[in-house]
Specification:
The complex is a heterodimer of chains A (about 260) and B (about 300). Chain A is mainly alpha-helical. In chain A, about 75% of the residues lie in helices and about 0% in strands. The longest helix of chain B is centred in the middle third of the chain and has 18 residues, at about 170-185. The chains are: A mainly alpha (about 260), B alpha/beta (about 300).
């Protein structure tokens, strides 16, 4: 390898992604929290909103989206920790391409999110019984990968310039949590309401809708007519992921005062 | 290792908004040197370190590392550099070996050479027993040594270290220096380190003193001390200003007041001691004679004391 070039990207991406996973599994409370919280929410929403005649099957895709959102986001909070603990500075002065660093970090976060989402999907399969064909389940998993990447990249983009995790928690409650609420995960679609209008502008809505298309449960017949078409779901979700990756790459080229701890 | 300069800095300036942190600084470091950049906290040496390590952009001036231009070939420069930061950069949740593995891959090392180099460094640094332990379980001194191993993993030609002795006891500091000198001799590596500790600078092959963003001295520590040209005499007295004036007037030698003491620098200090004590028997409370130290060099060049030994 000529000495004037940067390091090969693939090992850099792999090693940084692997580090995310190792760190995740070493923090046991993170693993437990990440598993228990969505199951708890799923049970609570489904039981608590029984009066609206929506069942466990209705809340399942939304809970999947929630797992992807929260895990992805928590995984990218680690960029703030990396900065504070100093690990990031040695990555920044290495001859590795900056985009490889971004992909490694996002890839690691998205993988953690996918592992949990797959576990939850298996739980749904066991308890509710999936009526979807295998091909549809595979397509749903691929769509989940795209959603996971988009959300992790969104987290990366938001976290890059922050120097405290407290700041990130504020963003989380005023921006990310409402984003999930307005994604069609929790409230059924009511045509003509302002809620529906707002959710049309939320890219996560299309991810959740896509999952509703693909994941059919035994004995439950969801209303698919009101949902955006599958093509639309894929286009918006992929566009969301590409846009977020591009923004992350752009912002990672900028320097922040946090580098100077 | 080719001969020539490991590092050439010309006319480097760095501003934070209106404030000038580094002002028109130029210096050269030859290959195989241990070069120390000494200065009090806030003198601009850490800013300079960040520019050299590519952490912050070069604003004005030019920097060349082993013949590679920092502005146009940043990745080539990064390959030449090993960087040891003042703040820790290890992942505490990972083991020593895992930290080094990630570092090696960031620098494009393959598995086999990485293993070999890791064993070599950890043995030399006395850490071979700790390789599978998590960094959070290591002592402060051990962590600093892992940081050093991390910085030297890819056999850099130029090792940059920012205040490497921070948090080290004197014994560990001496070990660090012994190891650096050995590595320089064996691998032909060049070391540039910053410090605010005067006694650390004395071990350098060459040194520069920085104050308020400028270079105020650049030479070997011995030459700088010799350039003071004599002994330094410090007098404690109740009225330093009056005494300094009297000495300057009556004995025709320049005495200055610094932090409530009267100071003068003269060759053959012992002769001056008796003259001073005879001339001002009542005013002098105590008088001390010293060979010039780097602190004297600093005072001589800047006109103020080296107020750095506070962490």
């Amino acid at each position: 390898m000529p000495s004037s070039q940067s390091t090969a990207a693939a090992p850099v991406i792999a090693t940084l992604a692997q580090r995310e996973l190792v760190r995740f599994f070493r923090q046991r409370n993170r693993v437990v929290g990440a598993l228990v919280q969505p199951i708890m929410f799923w049970l609570l929403f489904s039981a608590g909103l029984r009066s609206s005649d929506l069942g466990y099957a209705f809340f399942f895709p939304g809970t999947l989206a929630m797992i992807l959102l929260f895990t992805a986001i928590f995984a990218t909070i680690s960029i703030i920790e990396d900065r504070r603990e100093g690990f990031l500075q040695s990555v920044l002065v290495a001859p590795a391409p900056r985009w490889a660093m971004v992909l490694g970090k996002i890839g690691g976060g998205a993988t953690i999110a996918m592992l949990q989402a797959l576990l939850f999907l298996a739980l749904g399969w066991l308890t509710l019984g999936l009526a979807s064909a295998l091909g549809q389940v595979v397509a749903a998993v691929l769509l989940m990968v795209a959603i996971a990447i988009a959300l992790t990249a969104l987290g990366f983009f938001l976290a890059w310039r922050m120097d405290s995790t407290q700041g990130f928690h504020a963003i989380m409650s005023v921006f990310l949590f409402p984003m999930w609420l307005l994604s069609g995960s929790l409230f059924p679609d009511v045509p003509g309401s302002w809620l529906t209008w707002l959710s049309r502008w939320n890219p996560l809505t299309y991810g959740v809708a896509g999952l509703r298309h693909y994941l059919q449960f035994d004995g439950a017949a969801p209303a698919l007519d009101a949902l955006p078409s599958l093509t639309m779901c894929w286009l918006v979700t992929l566009g969301f992921a590409v846009l977020m990756l591009a923004l992350s790459w752009r912002i990672a080229g900028t320097r922040t005062t946090g580098d100077l701890l | 290792m080719a001969t020539g300069n490991a590092l050439t800095i010309s006319q480097l300036s760095h501003h934070y908004g209106q404030r000038v942190a580094v002002d028109q600084l130029s210096l050269e470091v030859s290959a195989g040197e241990i070069f120390v950049l000494l200065g009090p906290n806030g003198c601009g040496k850490t800013t300079l370190f960040r520019v050299l390590s590519t952490l912050i952009p070069l604003q004005t001036g030019a920097v060349s590392v082993c013949g590679h231009c920092l502005r146009t070939e940043p990745n080539a420069v990064r390959r030449q550099l090993g960087v040891v930061f003042q703040a820790p950069s290890l992942d505490k949740k990972l083991t020593v070996a895992e930290n080094l593995k990630h570092q090696g891959r960031l620098y494009g090392l393959a598995h086999q050479p990485l293993q070999q180099r890791q064993t070599e460094l950890l043995t030399a640094l006395g850490l071979e027993e700790r390789v599978q332990e998590r960094v959070e379980t290591l002592s402060g001194g051990q962590r600093r040594r892992v940081e050093l191993a991390k910085g030297m993993l890819h056999r850099p030609n130029l090792l940059l270290m920012d205040e490497p002795s921070t948090g080290l006891d004197p014994g560990a500091r001496a070990d660090l220096w012994k190891y650096l000198q050995q590595a320089v001799k064996q691998d032909g590596m060049t070391v540039v380190l910053t410090t605010h500790l005067l006694e650390e600078a004395e071990r350098a092959d060459r040194m520069a003193i920085m104050d308020a963003g400028r270079l105020v001295a650049l030479d070997t520590p011995a030459a700088l001390q010799a350039a003071i040209g004599g002994d330094s005499i410090t007098i404690r007295t109740a009225q330093p200003v009056a005494l300094a004036e009297a000495i300057t007037r009556q004995l025709d030698c320049a005495a200055t007041v610094l932090d409530g003491t009267v100071r003068l620098e003269q060759p053959q200090g012992h002769y001056w001691i008796s003259r001073l004590v005879e001339a001002f028997p009542d005013e002098i409370q105590s008088i001390t004679l010293g060979k010039p130290t780097l602190e004297d060099v600093f005072i001589d060049r800047t006109g103020h004391r080296f107020l750095a030994d506070v962490e």
